[in-house]
Amino acid sequence: MSLKIVVIVGSLRKASFNTKLADGLQTLAPDDISFDRQRIDDLPLYNQDDDKDQPGPTKGLKQAIRAADGVLFVTPEYNRSVPGVLKNAIDHASRPYGDSAFAGKPAGVIGVSVGAIGTACAQQHLRTILAYLDMPTFGQPEAFLKANDALDKDGGIADGSREFLQKWVDGYVAWVRRFNR
Ligand code: FNR
């Protein structure tokens, strides 16, 4: 069964390592998996006053998530947590109360940083958020990546990380299939 996975990258930076990682992960997935990377840079700051008539970009993001079989979060760590732009996107798509686009969607969490702990803190915080949003989240293997190790000089998956990341992608795809039989 072919599956569609929405990808949300927690960095707006043009040369983002996480965007490169997201692109690289897609090359490791089987042919029947399609990826739909959603932009989050067009979302305004979340304002609960707008819940009755959500901004156009919010509606588009929610529609894409609803149409997907799973959601893959690829994020840097900012100050030992989730970047504000990612939290803003999650807040948008989770609201209004009772109308979250995320509920029940199988999630994957991965990230790359220049720091030694490879986004571990950000990922743990993100897992707490996703648990509240009722998203079953792929658990093992965890992937805490350093840019120098995970990516080559052209931004592709580095040879030394390919085997591990292939295992991670295979595991996440199997996880998504479990919830879409
Ligand atoms: C960082 N960075 C960072 N790295 C890390 O490992 N732990 C951290 O807590 C932080 N904190 C942090 C805060 C802010 C505001 C910035 C801008 C950066 C460094 C971060 O890993 C690096 O900038 C990455 O390149 C960000 O990912 P992208 O944009 O390349 O995907």
Placed side by side, the strands forming the largest sheet appear as: 2-1-3-4-5
Based on helices, strands and strand pairing, what is the structural class? alpha/beta
* Whole-angstrom Rg: 15 Å
Helix content: 25-40%
Describe the main β-sheet briefly: 5 strands, parallel
The coarse silhouette is globular
SSE arrangement, N to C = EHEHEHEHEHH
Oligomer: single chain
Are there runs of 5+ residues with pLDDT below 50, and where?
none
Bound molecules: ligand FNR
Q: Report the count of strand segments.
A: 5
Strand proportion:
15-25%
Cα separation of the termini? 8 Å
User: What is the average of the pLDDT values?
Assistant: 98
Summarize the structure.
This protein has six helices and five strands, in the order βαβαβαβαβαα. It has 181 residues and is an alpha/beta fold. The chain is globular, with a radius of gyration of 15 Å.
Characterization of this structure:
This protein is an alpha/beta fold and 181 residues long. The chain is built from six helices and five strands. The longest helix has 20 residues, at 159-178. Strands 2-1-3-4-5 form a five-stranded parallel β-sheet, with helices on both faces. Helices cover 39% and strands 15% of the residues. α3 (84-93) links the parallel β3 (70-74) and β4 (107-113).
